[in-house]
Please model this.
Amino acid sequence: MAATPTHFSVSHDPFSSTSLLNLQTQAIFGPNHSLKTTQLRIPASFRRKATNLQVMASGKTPGLTQEANGVAIDRQNNTDVFDDIKQRFLAFKKLKYMDDFEHYKNLADAQAPKFLVIACADSRVCPSAVLGFQPGDAFTVRNIANLVPPYESGPTETKAALEFSVNTLNVENILVIGHSRCGGIQALMKMEDEGDSRSFIHNWVVVGKKAKESTKAVASNLHFDHQCQHCEKASINHSLERLLGYPWIEEKVRQGSLSLHGGYYNFVDCTFEKWTVDYAASRGKKKEGSGIAVKDRSVWS
Amino acid sequence: MSTESYEDAIKRLGELLSKKSDLGNVAAAKIKKLTDELEELDSNKLDAVERLKSGFIHFKTNNYEKNPTLHNALAKSQSPKFLVFACADSRVSPSHILNFQLGEAFIVRNIANMVPPYDKTKHSNVGAALEYPITVLNVENILVIGHSCCGGIKGLMAIEDDTAPTKTEFIENWIQICAPAKNRIKQECKDLSFDDQCTNCEKEAVNVSLGNLLSYPFVRERVVKNKLSIRGAHYDFVKGTFDLWELDFKTTPAFGLS
Model:
């Protein structure tokens, strides 16, 4: 087994001399308040030293001391963050990468994941952690509230990932995972009207408005938290229905080479509910315009 | 196939072999082959779901139930320190590479880990994925992680003419966000092999995304106040390396020239 050299470079800017964003201009005030302007194009390796210089110089000016102190503290935290990330990677390399080197080597040549997973970006619902996906298992898209825009409109981010994973990687399963206490779904349920375009969050979660409508139709007498939970699940089914609106997805589902699944992770009681789209039964429903049919529902706890 | 017919078939086979024992070897070989085929058929269908279930049970037993304090707290709210943009590629899960525990990192994954510039309609998706963790959860660090052998970047580098009609429905529309990176690499690294150009583009595309982050006012405001730091990274799973760098951006206090 060939030894792979351990390599971790910090503050490595690949284009240190000509980077678009490497320019720093600093004004350093001398003790007599005479103005000295120093323009520094700081090479990556000196970034930390330059930081110290900045702190020392600006600390002498009374008016800026407050700001300088703030700068000093945050910069120290920044160095800790660098170290933190470094330790994390080295641990991964030692405990996982080197142990399974052959597997990683094969993966370097090509990936052939069986799953496309669409999950929420929420820090509590990482699919690798919760479902144990290993490198190479699942092509994973994460966005706010695990929503799928319709084929005809909406942002391209998730749609490009669908196109690549289904048509190029030929995944066999798509799994849309929703979860409890979803902030995005909550924002959707709280929205006063769809024209509220003040924020990005509203502009995006409105993609799930049909799930909100169906929730309000059946659950408006429930407590808001229960309505949200209902909407979290309705939204998964709504996304699954949307997936069938992509012609190349529907084609593969019809042929039996692609299966669509929904999953709901409840981290309050640690349960995982899973179900599969019954395409044949769904076709009848599609004509009625009433959603999808599901099968093989199970709850793991 | 009903159980009854299977039992009948086995019974008939048993009767035949008891009369003609010299067929025993032939029968054994065929039965073994049949068994193997049936096992494979079975495992293909059940494999995917069983895999998920065993993965979940493993998580529940070894993580969730062993850390009740953490998970009870997370059930109420999250306060991640990191917002991470990573590629959707199955080989580069940030929680694997950087061992993020649940609750530590808000993770957005898309093709080629791109951050488009501010656009409320066209890119409301990414905008929301930035707005929520930054303005509501108050994350302190943004990390954009590129990686080796990125299919999205390779696709980008393969685009010869930006004005030509696209061959894909959505992919090219998305990856052209980092066209500035491609154009720069094609100009500055034209003597390198295509693969080396792609590697350079993987890193330069991260820099384009870092710059695009600053087009969001709520990001820029916090970066200038030093409440938010922005970093780029490149994970090379062929060599087993991880490069990390930081974006420096600030405005100094203005001083009068007159």
Remarks:
- Chain A touches chain B through 115 residues (CB under 8 Å).
- The mean pLDDT of chain A is 76.
- Residues 111-300 of chain A form a domain with the Beta-carbonic Anhydrase; Chain A fold (CATH 3.40.1050.10).
